[in-house]
Amino acid sequence: MMFKSEGERGDLNGFLDAGSQIEGDLHFDDTFRVDGRLSGKVISKGDLVVGDQGRVEGEIHVGRIFISGTVRGSVQAVQRVEITARGKVHADLETPSLIIEDGAFFEGRCSMGKESPQAAGERPVVARMPLNQER
After folding, report:
1. Domain tally, the chain
2. Between the CA of residue 108 and those of 18, 43, 92, 128, what are the distances in Å?
3. Among the listed residues 65, 61, 135, 133, the one whose alpha carbon sits nearest the alpha carbon of residue 99
4. How many whole angstroms separate alpha carbon 114 and alpha carbon 1?
5. Is the distance from CB of 37 to CB of 23 less than 8 angstroms?
6. Is 30 a domain residue?
7. Using only C-alpha atoms, what is the Rg of the chain?
8. What pLDDT does 75 receive?
9. Which residues contact 96 (CB under 8 A, 6 or more apart)?
10. Is residue 26 included in any domain, yes or no?
11. Does 128 reside within a domain?
C-alpha cells in the first residue's frame, strides 16, 4: 500500500466493492477502501482510500485520504490529502499536507495549516486552480 511506510497503520477495517452503494454515516478505526459509491458523512482518525472506481460524496473527516477515484463535498484530513494522477476532487479541503500528482483534477478551496483557521480566528488561505476542462 502507498501509505504503509508511515507507521504500523493500514489494517483494513472495511471495503466497499465496485457495484455497491451505501448512503449514511461511516465510522471506522484504521483503513477503509471505497471502490463503489458512498454518500454521507465519513468519520475516522484512520485512512480512507478511494480507489479508481470509487466515488465518495459528502463530508469527510479522516486522518489521511488517498484519492484515485472521485470525491465531492468537503474533506478535513488531520495529516494529509493525496490525489493521484487518476483522482478527481470537487471539494473544499482542510489539511496540513496536500499532494497532487501530475494529471490529477482538483476544483475547490484548500486551507492548509496545523490548526484549523476557524479555530484560530483567521481567514483560510484559498488556492484556486484554473480549469481548462473537466474530466
Report:
1. 1
2. 26, 21, 5, 7
3. 65
4. 26
5. no
6. yes
7. 14
8. 98
9. 78, 79, 80, 112, 113, 114
10. yes
11. no
Name the pTM for this structure.
0.78
Residue 1 falls inside a structural domain? no
What band does 10 get if pLDDT is binned at 50, 70 and 90?
A: low
Kindly tell me the burial class for residue 8, based on how many C-beta atoms sit within 10 Å of its own C-beta (0-12, 13-18, 19 or more).
Answer: exposed
The dihedral built from the CA positions of residue 115, 116, 122 and 123, taken in this order, carries a sign that is positive
- For cell 477515484, the residue is 69
What residue numbers bound the domain in which 115 lies? Answer: 15-120
pLDDT digits (tens, 9 = 90+) for 75-129: 999 999 999 999 999 999 999 999 999 999 999 999 997 654 444 444 444 444 5
